[in-house]
Amino acid sequence: MAEKLLFFLFLCLPYFCLASNVTYDHRSLIIDGQRKLLISASIHYPRSVPAMWPGLVATAKEGGLDVIETYVFWNGHELSPGNYYFEGRYDLVKFVKIVQQAGLYLILRIGPFVAAEWNFGGLPVWLHYVPGTVFRTDNEPFKSHMKNFTTLIVNLMKQEKLFASQGGPIILAQIENEYGYVESDYGDGGKAYAMWAANMAVSQDTGVPWIMGQQDDAPDPVINTCNSFYCDQFTPNSANKPKIWTENWPGWFKTFGSRNPHRPPEDVAFSVARFFQKGGSLQNYYVYHGGTNFGRTAGGPFITTSYDYDAPIDEYGLARLPKWSHLKELHKAIKLCEHALLKSEPTVLSLGPLQEAHIYAESSGACAAFIANMDGENDKVVDFQNVSYHLPAWSVSILPDCKNVAYNTAKVGSQTSIVEMVSENLHSSDKSSENLKWDIYMEKAGVWQGADFVMDSLVDHINTTKDSTDYLWYTISVQVDQGEKFLSNGRNPTLMVESKGHALLAFVNQELQASASGSASDIKFKFESPITLEAGKNEIALLSMTVGLQNGEPFYEFVGAGLTSVKIDGFNNGTLDLSSSTWTYKIGLEGEHLNIYKPDGLNNVKWISTSNPPKNQPLTWYKAVVDPPSGGDPVGLDMIHMGKGQAWLNGEPIGRYWPRTSSINDECPSTCNYRGKFNPDKCDTGCGEPTQRWYHVPRSWFRPSGNILVIFEEKGGDPTKISFSRRVVTGLCGLVSEDFPTTDFESWDKNSKYNSEAKPVLRLICPKGTLISSVKFASFGIPSGTCGAYLKGSCDYPNSISVVEKICLNKNKCTVALSGENFGKDICPGLTRKLAVEVACS
User: Fold this and answer.
1) Could you tell me what percentage of the chain is helix, strand and coil, using 3-state DSSP and rounding each to the nearest 5?
2) At what angle are helices 188-202 and 140-159 packed, to 10 degrees?
3) 574 and 608 together in one domain
4) Pairing outcome for strands 244-248 and 223-228
5) What span, in angstroms and rounded, lies between the C-alpha atoms of 707 and 651?
6) Which of 559, 588, 617 delimits the end of a domain?
7) CA-CA 20 to 30 A from 318: which of 307, 348, 492, 836?
8) Mind listing the pLDDT tens digit for each residue in 17-44?
């Protein structure tokens, strides 16, 4: 009984247990009569694993978040009509309760269309084949299934008492997503569908408001919201609705063969500060933790298995520093202003052509101000209330008392983590991966265990497989007469293929002849390749492959894939067009069909054991018994030496791997300038490098021993060079200037009063269980450079390293004040001094 009472008290955190009345007006959400200024974090439950959920939510809460937001992924829950799944990574109720136990609110974006770079936009593929169905328009079959699923989710939440109206954490629900972008493409049916969706949602009687992202015509009482890199200029479609930002993109997603995009923390902070400066009340980071597109869940096509997104929490669950901590300090500064922001209307002052201040002052005397410099190139000095303030370009200063700057978005005083992938053998013993025992099984190119069907035409790949697999075999026999000239003159005939996408392997008589693929920018492709034909009968087997299905755009469910034309040039009579010939088809792979990647299917084929597995061999399954990597660090599977395929550990789907490189002709800036508006190509890295090398393997998937790693390699690679890598923080950097606001907030007491005696500090914290083992660089003066490449300036305190070593060495964390006591008062007179430090953690 006592244990039950303790559990009940644990759940009954300040926000919850008593039913909450959630309403809104023009300024904010109102919960039990109290206005709320809310900062939210997107964490998608299927993109991590249950063992990670508590840590992810705790890291978000530590980062100053009030709310967790997630989509609901229809195609992960309704596997076939009426066949529901809510276990493992898809245990939605468990995820919501973990958020509740952390004392946070939750926004449930049911959709059920989500986009989200998720396969088919989150809608089940089977729904496309329900007769008469057209997605996302005034279509009765679609609306019927959509309503049924929405009602199912709502009732599940009600059953568990998870809406705020029942004492749960859910304060908002969303229907549809970004439909406003495509509504006009559906004509009259688009408008009718949008209104139907809104009314259907409201009729669910959840007791909490509903929202629609990017839906300017959302009818009352549904709130329309903004999704963008910047939403400060957004205005709701009614004066009675609050200004809500459902998707602030702190980075961007990756596609195989592309560069790696990054969004600077200064720009993310600028966008958030501007939103609240201009009357925003709820802002959500999409995504705060991106996670992993395990298995075949990535959409696109060509979206990578990694959905890291340059988010504040990285794919592996580690806080990304300085982004996470810079935003944490921003959240503190905004919360210092909350009372004034929600209790008054702003006074707006123009301080220049691109400079302005918003003052929130209430009758009680509380006052908060935001001063912005929207100039993307030039710093400015402005006069505000008879005081001069220096504003870096593209920045916002936050003054919780209308006098003293607590935070400036462009001044990053938080530490930077140095993160490395530390390689380990697949056996943690002395055995090397080269000597590891492998079992192999080789697929036959073409038809296995009999044809599925024969057709006198080329079929659409997706309509044939219905996304039950990535793979579809197109097989045909070609008869070559002895008199063909190419048999004697050494000039091989040319195979010419056109495809709607996404990738292809071409085999002749079981030998791989060519491979080709489209790209994220153009999924269609053509290719020509010489092939070897023999006199007599030749079997041509073309393996069409998908790399995730479309996840958006109008009528996207009708976008196909697969071959549209197959010809062979070089015969005596010219070009042989096979497009309308008799083709034999086989769906999927034999290994897939027999589930040989799952524990209960491993023995369904006869594996061949070897310590010297074949290299560069296409259509090969590899299996090995591996140990878990040492320690407790997150784990990635290093596939840099493999071609393309899929991987599993103990039957769990790691995902598609493809170390496809971006073009060496792409542009990657040597430095990233945060100033000015961001776009996904502004701060790219990785030109000429693989888009993704490591593939996240959650620790909870490992057993203490006897782990079964299964790889299916499509093109050919070297399995002896596969390894695990631990994601480890090996060091830290910090750079703080004397003119930085004291962003650790020691300068503000509990009553939000400024303490003018406080000085800026540099704070370093190594991961738990490690210590600062060495100081690799330290300079107080005017150092330059970036983390890992700091340089001393012409003015430098010569004993900087000794000072930092005395304070920090052999400690888990330390704080170094930029004070005269530490570094002397006479160094660099007349200059604004900085302290730059790099340390190792071990």
Assistant:
1) 20, 35, 45
2) 20
3) no
4) parallel
5) 10
6) 588
7) 836
8) 688 999 999 999 999 999 999 999 999 9
409: left (phi over 0), alpha (psi -120 to 50) or beta: alpha
How many other C-beta atoms lie within 10 A of the C-beta of residue 483?
9
Q: What is the DSSP letter of 489?
A: H
- 405 inside domain: no
Query: How confident is the model over 67-84, as a mean pLDDT?
Result: 98
Residue 163 shares a structural domain with residue 32: yes
Question: Within a 13 Å sphere around the CA of 94, how many CA atoms are in the beta-carbon half?
Answer: 14
pLDDT of residue 7: 41
Domain total in the chain: 4
CB within 8 Å of 662: residues ≥ 6 apart:
257, 258, 259, 686, 687, 688, 689, 691
Give the tokens for residue 841. Answer: 């953690």
**Can you tell me whether residue 527 is helix, strand or coil?**
strand
Tokens representing 369 are 């101000």
pLDDT in the model for residue 5 = 39
Six token digits for residue 123: 């809608």
- The catalytic residue among 117, 247, 338, 838 is 247
Does a structural domain hold residue 164? yes
State yes or no: is 178 an active-site residue. Answer: yes
Q: What CATH number has the domain bearing residue 508? A: 2.60.120.260
Q: Does 669 lie in the same domain as 626? A: yes
Task: Tell the residue number behind the tokens 């493992």, with chain if given.
Answer: 88
Task: Give the number of other Cβ atoms within 10 Å of residue 283's Cβ.
Answer: 24
- AA letter at 267: D
pLDDT over 70, % of the chain: 95
Amino acid in position 548: G
Same domain, 600 and 535: no
* Parent domain of 769: 759-841
Indicate whether 197 and 129 sit together in one domain: yes
- The CA distance from 740 to 413, in Å, is 7
Query: Beta partners for 454?
Result: 584
Chain Cα centroid distance, residue 181: 22
Mean pLDDT over 282-303 rounds to 98
What DSSP character marks residue 791? Answer: B
Q: Do 534 and 486 touch, CB atoms closer than 8 A?
A: no
Per residue in 79-128, pLDDT tens? Answer: 999 999 999 999 999 999 999 999 999 999 999 999 999 999 999 999 99
Residue tagged active-site, from 69, 78, 176, 178: 178
CATH number, position 768: 2.60.120.740
Same domain, 460 and 544: yes
Least confident of 669-673, 684-688, 821-825: 821-825
> Does position 506 have pLDDT exceeding 80, yes or no?
yes
Do 148 and 286 belong together in one domain? yes
Instruction: Give the Cα-Cα-Cα angle 217, 221, 224 (nearest 5 degrees).
Output: 40
Q: Which two tokens stand for residue 834?
A: 């900085």
Q: Is 247 a known active-site residue? A: yes
Task: Classify 341 in phi/psi space as left (phi over 0), alpha (psi -120 to 50) or beta.
Answer: alpha
Token code pair at residue 517: 């693929």
Averaged over 584-600, what is the pLDDT? 98
Q: Are strands 355-361 and 367-373 parallel, antiparallel or unpaired?
A: antiparallel
Last residue of a domain, which of 567, 588, 609?
A: 588
Number of helical (H) and strand (E) elements in the chain, helices listed first: 15, 44
Q: Mean pLDDT across the chain, nearest whole number?
A: 95
Residue 302 per-residue DSSP state = T
User: For residue 298, is it within any domain?
Assistant: yes
Q: Is 317 left (phi over 0), alpha (psi -120 to 50) or beta?
A: left
pLDDT class of 11 with cuts at 50, 70, 90: very low
Please give the model's pTM, rounded to 2 decimal places: 0.96
Q: Are 782 and 658 part of one and the same domain?
A: no
- Check residue 745 and give its pLDDT: 62
Cα–Cα distance for residue pair 126/123, rounded to 1 Å: 9
Question: Facing residues of 762 across strands?
Answer: 816
User: For residue 406, is it within any domain?
Assistant: no
Judged against a pLDDT cut of 60, whether residue 812 lies above it is answered with yes
Q: Which two tokens stand for residue 156?
A: 């599940």
Specify the CATH number for the domain of residue 230. 3.20.20.80
